[in-house]
Design brief:
By secondary structure, the protein is an alpha+beta fold. It has three helices and five strands, in the order αβαββββα. It comes from Nicotiana sylvestris.
């Protein structure tokens, strides 16, 4: 089962019935789809039925939780998510996909979202050198 996806697959996103070699590959696929679409994702839940093997996972939009107080929050109770189940053969199958977001997606700002920020080696080296030299932002 090849898990190589092209740009078109990532833009379309997960489809019910898609199979992945592991839950980490499924998470990485959904994370890359989220980056291209303009939202970030969180691991919502997982379930170990009878033993230490995870058999069910749910990954959702980063704004999926209910807001708890009146302060400004990024929580919007967004229902967008995917559910995945472990198959008998050890592969993971997407069992449910909800693509409808109740907030505006921001592809131009996705590189600034918490789940998508990454520093290249050059920038990490520069920051480490400045830190050692005592230069603080």
């Amino acid at each position: 089962m090849p898990n190589e996806f092209n740009e078109e697959d990532l833009i379309i996103g997960p489809i019910t019935g898609m199979r992945f070699s592991s839950k980490d590959v499924m998470f990485d696929f959904y994370k890359e789809h989220a980056r291209l679409s303009g939202f970030c994702i969180v691991k919502r839940t997982s379930n170990k039925k009878g033993g230490d093997i995870v058999r069910y996972v749910q990954y959702g939009c980063g704004r999926s939780r209910k807001p708890r107080n009146k302060h400004v929050t990024k929580r919007r109770n967004c229902r967008a998510r995917i559910n995945g189940n472990l198959e008998e053969n050890g592969s993971w199958r997407v069992s449910k996909v909800v693509k409808k977001h109740n907030h505006q997606l921001e592809p131009a700002l996705s590189r600034l979202m918490a789940g998508h920020i990454s520093l290249n080696k050059s920038l990490k080296r520069t920051l480490a050198t400045k830190y050692i030299a005592g230069l603080r932002p």
